[in-house]
Amino acid sequence: MQNAKDTFYVMLQGRLAALNPSRTIVVRGVVRPGTLVDENELPTGSIPVDVFRMEWTGLQINSGASLPLVTMECSIAYCTDGSSGDGGMDRGRLLAGMDAELASALGAEPHTVQKMNYSAAGTGVAPIAMGTNVFCADPTSGAVTSVDGRLARTSTVQVFAYQEVGEL
C-alpha cells in the first residue's frame, strides 16, 4: 500500500507543480512544490496556507482475486487567507484557483500511472517500476468553510492499486 500512496503523491505533486510552479512551501529550510502528505511531515502548530495537504483517511482491501485490490481514500485539504496586497479580499478567487488546479491535476490524462517503489529514493537509488498501476476516481469536493477569515475546502479521492506479491 505504501508504494501506491507514494506513487499517487509523486504523480499529484508533479502535475500540480506543472500547473502552478509558483505554488511552493518552505519545509525545514527547503523550497518544495506546494503539496504535502501530513503523515510524512513533523507536526506543527499552524496549518500551512495556499498548499495542498494530503491525508490517507480510508482503506479497504478486496482479496477475492489473485492480486488483492486496495482502495484507499485520500483527503486533500487546502485553504487560503487571500493575498496581503489585496487585504485578503481575493481569497474566494484564490480558493477557486486551487479548486481548478486540483480538478485539472486529477482529471489529466493518463488516469493511471505505473506504481513505483520509492523506498530507496533518499539513498540516490532511482525508483523501481513495479508490475501494476495506480489509478483514481474523480474527486468529491466538500463545502467551503470559513474560520477566522480563512477559506478552506477538503476534497476526497478514491485511489486504487493491486497489492503485488511481497508488497507491504
Mean pLDDT: 92
Helical segment tally?
A: 2
Percentage of helical residues? 10-25%
Q: How many independent structural domains?
A: 1
The SSE order reads HEEEEEHEEEEE
Nearest-angstrom radius of gyration? 17 Å
Uncertain parts: none
Largest sheet: 8 strands, mixed
How much beta, percentage-wise? 35-45%
CATH architecture: 2-Layer Sandwich
Report the count of strand segments: 10
By CATH, the topology is STM4215-like
Question: Which overall shape is indicated by the principal axes computed on the Cα atoms?
Answer: globular
CATH class: Alpha Beta
Structural class: alpha+beta
Quaternary state reads single chain
Q: How widely separated are the two ends?
A: 6 Å
Topology summary:
Blueprint: H1 2-19, E1 24-27, E2 30-33, E3 35-37, E4 52-62, E5 69-80, H2 91-107, E6 112-117, E7 128-136, E8 140-141, E9 145-147, E10 150-162
Parallel strand pairs: 3-4
Antiparallel strand pairs: 1-2, 4-5, 5-10, 6-7, 7-10, 8-10, 9-10
Helix pairs in contact: 1-2
Word description of this protein:
The chain has 168 residues and is of the alpha+beta class. It has a single domain (2-159), classed as 2-Layer Sandwich (STM4215-like). Helix content is 21%, strand content 40%. It has 2 helices and 10 strands, in the order αβββββαβββββ. Strands 3, 4, 5, 6, 7, 8, 9 and 10 form an 8-stranded mixed beta sheet that branches. A two-stranded antiparallel sheet has the order 1-2. The model has no long low-confidence stretch (mean pLDDT 92).
